Amino acid sequence: MRRGTKVAVGVGAAVVVVGAAAWIWGPGLYADRANEAAAEAPSLSTSAAPLPDAEAAAGTWTVTDGSFAGYRVDEVLQGEDVTVTGRTEDVTGSVTVADAAITAADIEVDIASVATDEANRDAYFRDNAMEVGQFPTATFTLTEPAPIEEGATSVALTGELTVHGVTQPATVDAEVAGDPTSGDPVQVVGSVPVTFEDFGVEAPDLGFVTVEDEGSIEFSLQLAPGQ
């Protein structure tokens, strides 16, 4: 998403327990450990190729096993740069392709199940930052057709993103690949830059650790033909 699509996903994720961890290991060792735990950015599988024919993908596709969504956020801990990622496989939804374009998409993510390598950090993220008891899910809904260019993997998805009860316009720069005739899932991946305050969440600043005001939403969807 571009400037208008800012999200709170991950705002508290880089804060809780880092102070204690830093005292135990020291900031440098904690930063190394956290950076090693950060997941790789989602990407198309090495065997993925552009859709051979957009018309071959016509129909409704359902999010299936192997999909995930989450966040990536940076923090500064006593001068040390740390990257934190959270992930969940609890993603549902569908995508419709017609006339060589993605014409509809509705994706829902269970925010309460987003997890990092630290349980206490995740508890802060769920209860304090995202208030999942009141706002349990995040959603994206396509609002404009997204043409699929023959031989290309890139596609721009324009729609609305709802997080923490706030809806913002969103344009997602994504990649799509796969062979609909093979029986294997079609893959859609993307990384969306976001800013927290537009969704009513303040990035924590605890003195010893500061979370950057901006992060990103990341996703990898495996799409199978709908029933």
In short:
The protein has helices at 18-25, 27-37, 119-129; strands at residues 59-63, 68-77, 80-88, 91-98, 101-110, 137-142, 146-147, 154-163, 166-177, 186-195, 209-225. The protein is mostly beta strands. Helix 1 crosses helix 2.
Report on the structure:
The chain is mostly beta strands and 227 residues long. The protein has three helices and eleven strands. It has helices spanning 18-25, 27-37, 119-129; strands spanning 59-63, 68-77, 80-88, 91-98, 101-110, 137-142, 146-147, 154-163, 166-177, 186-195, 209-225. An eight-stranded antiparallel beta barrel has the order 1-4-5-6-8-9-10-11. Helix 1 packs across helix 2. 41% of the residues are buried.
Write the layout of secondary structure elements.
Elements lengths: L17 H8 L1 H11 L21 E5 L4 E10 L2 E9 L2 E8 L2 E10 L8 H11 L7 E6 L3 E2 L6 E10 L2 E12 L8 E10 L13 E17 L2
